Fold this sequence. Notes:
Mean pLDDT: 97
Oligomer: single chain
Number of helices: 9
Largest sheet: 8 strands, mixed
Low-confidence stretches: none
Strand content: 15-25%
Structural class: alpha/beta
Amino acid sequence: MTTLRINGVEIGYDEAGTGHPLLLIHEAIADRRMWDATWEAFSSRFRVIRMDMRGFGETPNPDGEYANWRDMAELLRALDATPAHVLGASSGAGAALALTLQEPALVDRLVMVAPGLPGWKWGASMNAANAAEEAAWEAGDMDEVAWVNVRSWIDGPSRGPQEVPSEIRQAVFAMQRHALDYDNDNAIQVPLDPPPGERLGEVQIPTLVLVGDLDQPDMVDIAKHLEAEIAGARLVIMPGVAHAPMMEAPLAFLDSVLPFLEA
């Protein structure tokens, strides 16, 4: 286990390779292990760093206010790894966007995979998924909370469990179930004010947005919105994958991301 004390917390991270820095930020249903299938390819081309955000993997979730983008910024500074390409997935993509907005000198290329967007009005599929998760939470069934997230995000709204490799479903269940044990109502994430959705015109760096065509419909719509609102942004819609394309189809994912990062 490798850690650095950042903003009062021991942040778990890995580092490998040489060259231009690349920071990988995981989804909220996983931890830094979600990058395992792409780690070797990235580390053969970049000085690649992957971290566990607070409450995931090997990073604790203590009381107090925090912002993931601040932890990311201080980790990059502590490792003398700026400016960096930043690649985030889902909530990690949101953190990557916040870092780009708040600390633009630290980021030179931005990749957002299946990004969320604060304030987005969810459609029927997401409302149903959120209701199922809330019901499991209220029942105190943390295993079911984790499986709801696997079904909602890894299977997606149009596939059954048998259509997704069992090892991917089990890996995400394990990462999500571990994260649920970190739950702490006294750890308060401070949102950006004004929110990122009102500041997309400030993004002035090369940006790639990637989403799977089997992801929740709202995620595809958000990706299209970001492409339209961020100057020069490119959109890739990957076929046959849902919310974790780097796990489901790592080679196709790399084929989309590497040329952008190496341009």
